[in-house]
Amino acid sequence: MASKSNEFLLEQRAYIKIRSLLGDTPRNIHQDLVQVYGGEACSESTVKKWSLRFREGRVSVEDDPRMGQPIIATTANNIALVAEMCDSDPHITIEQLATSLTLSTGSVHAILTKHLGLEELEHPPYSPDLAPCDFWLFDGLKKHLAGTVFGERMQIGRAIQRYLRDIPQEEYKKTFFKWIERLKLVVEHKGDYFEHL
User: Fold this and answer.
1) How far is CA 147 from CA 136, 142, 160, 191, in A?
2) What is the spatial distance between Cα 33 and Cα 45, in angstroms, rounded to a whole number?
3) So what's the pLDDT on residue 132?
4) Which sequence spans correspond to the domains of the chain?
5) 20 contacts: CB under 8 Å, gap ≥ 6
6) Grouped pLDDT means (10 residues each) for the chain, 197 residues
C-alpha cells in the first residue's frame, strides 16, 4: 500500500504531466500545486524537471527503477545519533548533522520531522526589524557618510571599512543580543510579522 506522501507525489506528477502537455508553464503549475497541497507541494525546480520530462515524451509518473540495494539512512542508530546531537547542540544545522553522520540532508530532514517529530518553522517574511543591518547598522552608516562626495568607488569602500572598524566591539555585542531578543519574539508569536520593535 502506498504511503500518503507517495500518493500526493504521484497525484502531483500526474497534474504536472497533464498541464505540461497542455502547454502550461512550470511556474503556473507550481502555484496551483502550492494552493492545493500547501507545504506538501513539490518544489518549483521539481515541477520544471518533471514538466520537461513529460514534454520530451515521458509517460510514467512513477520513479524509474534504481539499480542495487536501496540505501536506508533512517536506521534506529541514525535516529538515535541525530537525537543525541540535537540534544547536545540545539543550534546544530541539518547540514552539520548530515556532514557529521555522512547522511544526505534529505535523510536528516526526514529523521528530524518524521521520526523525531520536530516541526519546521516557516521563515518569517523579510522584516527590517529582524535584520541587524537594517535596524542598527545602516542608519548610523548613512549618517556617517551623509554629505560626503566620493571621487571613485574605492573611496566609498574604504570609508565603509573605516566606519565598521571604528564601531566598538561592545556595540556589536549589544546588537547581537537585541537581535536574539527580536528573534525570540517572532518564535513566541509563531512567525507573525512585527513592525517597529
Assistant:
1) 20, 9, 14, 39
2) 13
3) 84
4) 4-55, 76-115, 132-188
5) 26, 29, 50, 51, 54, 55
6) 65 91 92 88 90 91 72 83 91 89 89 86 66 86 91 91 93 90 80 63
- For the CA atoms of the chain, what is the radius of gyration? 24
Q: Which three cell numbers stand for residue 122?
A: 516557516
Nearest to 98 by CA among 87, 116, 114, 86: 86
CATH number, span 4-55: 1.10.10
Residues 43 and 31: their CA atoms lie apart, in Å, by 10
**Residues 6 or more apart whose Cβ sits within 8 Å of residue 42:** 9, 12, 13, 16, 30, 33, 50
pLDDT of residue 70: 58
Residue 2, pLDDT score: 45
Going by C-alpha positions, the residue among 3, 2, 12 that lies closest to residue 41 is 12
Q: What is the pLDDT of residue 88?
A: 92
Q: The pTM is what?
A: 0.36
Contacts of 105 by beta carbon, 8 Å cutoff, 6+ apart: 94, 95, 98
Alpha helices (H) in the chain, listed in sequence order: 4-21, 26-37, 44-55, 76-88, 94-101, 105-110, 132, 138-145, 153-166, 169-188
Q: How far apart are CA 134 and CA 141, in angstroms?
A: 11
